[in-house]
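Researcher: Please translate sequence to structure tokens.
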Amino acid sequence: MIREVKNDRPSKFEEFLRHLEEARKLQDDILKYGLTAANLYCEDVDGDWLETWGDDEENTFVESVVNFLESNDSVAVKVRKQLKDKSLQEIATELENCLSFGEEEERIFALKNVLVGSVTSGSIYRDFSDDDEIDLLDLAEELLEKLTHICGED
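Model: Translation complete:
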């Protein structure tokens, strides 16, 4: 089996030359205009963008999860019932952490562990029947589906 390799070296070289020319122009503008050259390349340089950096993005997922948990969705109701000892904000933060796992199976078991966390206490572990464990896994799968929808990973 022979695989054809497209030779795009000339296009990559042209792109490199273009970026190099842009960098040279930026350097010349900085030498020519000083710090005011930033106005040529950036909008709202003097605004409060640095102080407010990330404010819009930081809590949007957690807030969306809290809104979901406050809803009358059947999954949200089950999660609230299962984790009744925790605040919605705390639950949403833990759920966000569960989504940091790469594989779907790892996410499901992380969610299940969060759901089980409400019935484990230190070294005391309440025994689950197989049905309870299956119900928790089903709930974790449904919850993962809802969370991926919220964060737009569909």
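Researcher: Any highlights?
Model: The beta strands are 120-121, 124-125.
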